[in-house]
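Reopening: MFS transporter still failing for me.
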Amino acid sequence: MILAVISGGLLLCGIDLTVLHVAVPSLSRDLRPSAAELLWIVDVYSLALAAMLVTCGTLGDRIGRRRMVLAGFLTFGLASAACAFSASSVQLIAARAALGLGAAMIMASTVAIIRVVFTDGRERAFAIGVWTSAHSVGATIGPLVGGLVAERWGWGAVFLVNVPVLVVILAVGARVIPESKNPVPRRWDLASVVLSVTGLAAVVYALKQVGEHIGVNATIIVTALGGVTLLYVFVRRQRRLAEPLLDFSLFAERRFTTATLCVIGCFGGYVALLFFLTQWLQQVGGYSPLYAGLSLMPLAAANAVGAVTAPWMANRWGNRGALTGALLLFALAYAVIAAVGDTAQYGVLLAPLLAAGYGAGIVMTLGADSIMSAAQPERSGEAAAIQETSFELGAGLGVAVLGTVMAVVYRTGMPPVPGLGADERVTAGESFAAAEGLMAQLPPATADAVLNAARRAYDQGFTAVAVIATVGLALTAAMAAVLLRPGKGESV
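Support: Ran it again with your exact input. Result attached.
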């Protein structure tokens, strides 16, 4: 029962990572967010989760894991309701950030609870396997769930469906989950929390503003430099503390650092593909939310197969060979998607989607395993925290970086449309949703011209995103091939 409660919570955390992807077009029509606000709406959840994961784990050790996870369920449920009834982009961004905090509170405590409850080694291994798959399954089915719900009840319902489930999970969890604490908890350093969260937020904010303004100004430069400085001070502080919030000495191990970067790059590319592909299919191809969600199921299924067969691939080719080959397969799939570039040819897109999902599934599984195996056994808890953080940070940064590319290419690629006034040209160039919202005010011929121009510009942006992701994954594969070489006496 405890495993069911914990896994149910993790499943919802995974779903909310990707559930909004197919609902973005309808959400954009209602709230009219700017390009930067839309990116915040999508990835502030994963960024908040990544920023608070280690902090919540340390705090849970002190105040009690049961108390932390139940507070996480409550926070997640309240934030879900706040997301559903948001009337502006700013409200939705704040509610999504709170949703990420709730998810961090849930995820940070569950592994420790499993270790306390399942004292038998074999049972514990099975429980951790179920726990791990719950989040990845949730992220995989998120677009389909979002498509089913958004098409019938609107975008707000994709959050509202969490509430009754969480009421049950909270009620049962309060009865069955035992309390546990670390008898010698690590020191909770508030200054480190503030430095890491503020620094990460500043860097991502500056990045999104580059896409919003198609260039840099003094405010963007100062914000970016301030964020980088705060993150530098954070790293320096962790190296000096006897009990750091995040132990960077683990990164002195070459294989640990390389595996972490592989996970960040791969999961970032995978979540970005889920996000931009759903927008591309709907906005350029005219797919319904449900059809777009269904179109991603082969990608999701292949990802699951890749995760299951990853150990066999590692036994056959070694961790280094399997990771490198899977990253190259993922990069090749992105390249083919960029080359096809036609939503009408879904049959042609099917093969690269299967390849992308399969390659990403292998990398995520073997990358996570490499992170854990590269750390010393007595530091497995710290390695696990970094492993979880790398997944969420990859998801947030993948959408942030590639979303900025999309915004810049869309704005610069939006051609002038005859018949539009100066203000209307500015509006049409903000985002696809803004151009679509403008059409109701225009004569039919001009509206059709605006829609076709917006589709061409978005299509160019998607192609640019796919090309850059291809290059990034290829470079990550090269890094894995070079830096995962075994040392003397080590196996591959």
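The CA atoms of residues 242 and 324 lie 36 Å apart. If you still see a failure, please send the error message rather than a screenshot.
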